[in-house]
Amino acid sequence: MSKNNPSNSTFIDHFTDLRNMLIFCFLTVIICSIFSYFFAEDIISFLVSPLNDVMTSVKSTNRLIYTNLAEGFLTYLRISVFSGFVISLPVILYKVWFFISPALKIKEKKIISYFALSSFICFILGFVFCYFYIMPLAWKFLLGFQSLASETSVAIDLEARLGNYISLSIAMILAFGFMFQMPVVLFLLLDANVINVNNLVSFRRYYIVSVFTISALVTPPDVVSQVGLSIPLILFYEVIIYLYRKLKDFDC
Question: Where exactly are the structural domains of the chain?
């Protein structure tokens, strides 16, 4: 009897489609990761470039080391998987969209489309801001603790490990990319009437404290990157309040 049950058949079909989608996404990441491995050296050079520029400007030793025989290979592997996931992300999102879109209404499809596009743009802004502005400043600040040898002290030089630096760079890029999603989240909450502008105004002081706390947790232990992440998020908050008030006045 269960074989003739339409609801049971529909559930099995959806489960099969979900399984096929997950398998497809997994294979896509694997293939893109394998492809990325052949360009791992170029990707590492790209990530190392801000540190190399700062080392050159402060006349530090321009090199990265690894102290474990497998560290070099594992770093290349980590870079390949990370790059493979980033490259395959548009395909994965399209596949997920293709899976859930039949169950959505036209208005819901538009909202999700705007959200996805805005989220992508904000992530790119976070990456660009981190890579071109924050990383050079943070690395210069951290390299400032080196010192030359003197009669009363020994030299203090940085011997940066490749694996640690790549992990730190990826973590910073992801932190800025994801934290820059805050304007999109606030707009969605406002548009869905979950919160209103008055809530944002009254919650401002708590938001500022929360932003500095989160920034201290997701960035390296230096003031430059923490403040560099906090300031844009606070500005975004104020801009969202201003723009949403203007939009409401315009609608009226």
Answer: 2-180
